[in-house]
Design goal:
The structure is a single chain. This protein has about 150 residues and is an alpha+beta fold. It has one domain. Helix content is about 20%, strand content about 30%. It is built from 2 helices and 6 strands. The strands form 2 sheets. It has a 4-stranded antiparallel β-sheet with strand order 3-4-5-6, covered by helices on one side. A two-stranded antiparallel sheet has the order 1-2. β3 and β4 form a beta hairpin. It is globular and about 45 Å long. The two termini are about 20 Å apart. About 30% of the residues are buried.
Length: about 150
């Protein structure tokens, strides 16, 4: 479950993760904070671990009033060219909202988008990691390198 204020920018090759494929976005990511008043703040290496994992309740940038503490993604349907990505928000370790995003592999584009650019970017990162694990990066229009 990634922090809902984390804006991933590139896949992390730092090797700090024991099982990177088990991380909420399918791997470790570099990025910046987008919490109100802290936009584009670069987290330290230790903070970046918490950004990738969510529930960073001890983070000084985390707003006291927020809709969620973390967001989780999963592939709910992988049928031919159509992929469905579920997302679930959590607040205080309880569900706080959910939805589905759709991606068309044959077109290499999202057919539904999330209104929040942070959540959309995280969904893109999650999908990229998923497709690379299933050996289909080119089919999705993603470059074959891990950086985006």
């Amino acid at each position: 479950m990634a922090c809902p204020f984390f804006m991933p920018t590139s896949k992390s090759d730092a090797g700090v993760w024991l099982h990177p494929s088990r991380l909420p976005l399918g791997g470790g990511w570099n990025g910046h904070c987008s919490a109100p008043g802290h936009e584009n703040s670069e987290p330290t290496t230790e903070e970046l671990k918490k950004c990738n994992l969510g529930y960073a309740t001890d983070c000084s940038r985390l707003p006291k009033e927020r809709a969620s503490d973390a967001v989780r993604f999963s592939i709910s349907r992988d049928c031919g060219p159509q992929l469905s990505v579920w997302f679930v928000y959590e607040l205080d370790h309880r569900p706080a909202g959910h939805g589905t995003l759709e991606y068309d592999l044959s077109l290499g584009t999202w057919t539904s988008f999330h209104a929040d650019p942070r959540i959309q970017k995280m969904a893109e990162c999650y999908l990229q990691s998923y497709l690379q694990r299933t050996i289909r990066p080119a089919a999705a229009g993603f470059p074959s390198s891990a950086n985006s």
